[in-house]
C-alpha cells in the first residue's frame, strides 16, 4: 500500500470493521440508495460510503477492504480516504473495530 | 402510553437531504407508526392519546396489521414504530415484529416496559426486533408511580436490566413537565446507573391528556433553563458514553416546530382501529375524514385521499405563513396545535411570534410563571382513563 504512511494513526489496517450494535445497512428500492438504519433514524448513503460500509462485515480487515475497493473501482491510493471514513463512522458508532 | 410524538427519520450530516423536503412531489411514507392499541396499564397525565380513546372502534386483527405492513413496505416505508397505548398488551406483537423484520423494516418498540417479561423479550429478539425505547416517568419510585398512577417503577427497572441482558442499546425516554423537570439531574443519574446509551428528555407536547392537564404541566421558563443547564453539564461529563437529547418545549420558542416534517410528507400513523393519520394526534382535526385501512389500500390513502392531500403543499396556508420566507422550513408548525389553541387548524401555529394569536401561548406561559412564583390550589390532574375522557376539550 503506497500511501500506507499517511494512514490515520487511530485506524489499524489489520482491524476488522463491523456494523455497530443497532445499525443496519440495506438497499432501499423506493429511495434508490443504500441506507443506514438505526433506532428511529436513517442516513442515506452516497455511493462511496455504501461501497465501504457494505464491505464492513467483521471478517475483512481494513486492508482487505481497501484492496477490494481498489480492485473493483480500478483505483489506487484509497487507504487514507477509507481510513478517514472509517474513523468518522467509528466515532458515530456506525462501525465497531474488531481486533 | 405517553411517549412524545416521535420525530420522523431525519438525515444526519453524513447523509444526503431527505427526499420530498423542498420538492412538490409526494415521496413515500418512510416512517410508519402502528399504534397497535390504545389499551395501556398506565394512566399518565401527559399522554398524547385522544381523551376519548375509550370510544375508538374495534382494534385491527393480526392479519389486517400484516397487510398494512406489506402495503406500506411496498411503498417504501422502512422505519417502523410499534406503539400505542402499550403495544405489549397485544399478544400478537411477536408475529407483527417477525413479519415486519422479514419485510425489511427497522423495528422500534416504544414501550412502558409493562408486560415485557424475559420470555417475551426472548421471543421478540428471535422475531428480529431491532430496538426498544423504554419510558420512565421520573427518577424515583414515588414520582414515577404517581405520574403514571401505577406501581411500575421497580418493574421498569427490572425491564431495563433485561434490555441490557439481551444486548439492546438502552434507550430511555422521559417526558418532562412542571412536576418532574426539576429532577433532571436525578433522572440522568438513574439513566447512568442503568447503563443507558441514549436518553431522550422530551418536554411534554400538549395534545390529548397533556392538553387536558396543560395548566398543571407547563413548566416555567426558569425551570426549562435550569434543566437545560443541568443537561449540558451532564453531557460534558459523560461524553459519548451516554447521548442525551433534550427536546425543547415549543411553547417557549419563537418559531414553530416543523411538525412531522409537514403533514403527509414522510410520516404515516395507523390508529388501533385502522384509521390512517398523517400524525398520531391528527384525528382531532375538523373537516377531514381520515380513511381506514379496512376500506382502502395504504397506497390510495397515502397518495390519493383528500384527508392526506389537504395539508400538503402550501395552498391551505393563511397569512402570515402564506408569504413567509420560512414556510418551507417549518410548514407553518403544527396543525393540531393551531386547532387546539385558535380553533382553526389552517392558522399559523401560535407558537410562532409572527402569529396574530401568539398571545395565547405567551398567556399560558405567563400563568406557568405565576404558578412558579406563588403555587396556588389547582384543579386536580386528570389521569388517563377510559371513564375520564368524556369531556374532550377542557
Write the layout of secondary structure elements.
The complex is a heterodimer of chains A (about 100) and B (about 400).
Chain A lengths: L15 E4 L4 E5 L4 E6 L2 E4 L2 H7 L8 H11 L6 H13 L3 E4 L1
Antiparallel strand pairs in A: 1-5, 2-3, 3-4
Chain B lengths: L30 E7 L24 H14 L3 E6 L8 H11 L2 E6 L6 H10 L3 E6 L4 H8 L4 H13 L5 E6 L7 H11 L3 E6 L4 H5 L1 H4 L3 H18 L4 E5 L19 E4 L5 E2 L20 H7 L1 H4 L17 H4 L4 H8 L15 H16 L21
Parallel strand pairs in B: 1-2, 1-8, 2-3, 3-4, 4-5, 5-6, 6-7
Antiparallel strand pairs in B: 8-9
Descriptive labels:
heterodimer, A: 99 residues, alpha+beta, Outer Surface Protein A, domain 3, three-stranded antiparallel β-sheet, two-stranded antiparallel sheet, 31% helix, 23% strand, disordered N terminus, B: 394 residues, alpha/beta, nine-stranded mixed β-sheet, disordered C terminus
Structure overview:
The complex is a heterodimer of chains A (99) and B (394). Chain A has 99 residues and is α+β, with helices and mostly antiparallel strands. Chain A is built from 3 helices and 5 strands, in the order ββββαααβ. In chain B, strands 7-6-5-4-3-2-1-8-9 form a 9-stranded mixed sheet, covered by helices on one side. Chain B is of the alpha/beta class and 394 residues long. Chain B contains 14 helices and 9 strands.
Distance between the termini of chain A: 20 Å
Total beta strand runs of chain B? 9
Which overall shape of chain B is indicated by the principal axes computed on the Cα atoms?
globular
Q: Beta-strand level of the residues of chain A, as a percent range?
A: 15-25%
The coarse overall form of chain A would be: globular
Strand percentage of chain B lies at: 5-15%
> How far is it from the N-terminal to the C-terminal residue of chain B, by CA?
20 Å
Average pLDDT metric of chain A? 89
Based on the structure, what is the oligomeric state of the protein chains? heterodimer
Task: Provide the number of structural domains of chain A.
Answer: 1
Main β-sheet of chain B: number of strands, strand sense, barrel status?
A: 9 strands, mixed
Strand order in space, largest sheet of chain B: 7-6-5-4-3-2-1-8-9
Helix amount of chain B, in percent? 25-40%
Low-confidence stretches of chain A: 1-9
* Largest beta sheet: strand ordering of chain A: 2-3-4
The CATH topology annotation of chain A reads as Outer Surface Protein A, domain 3
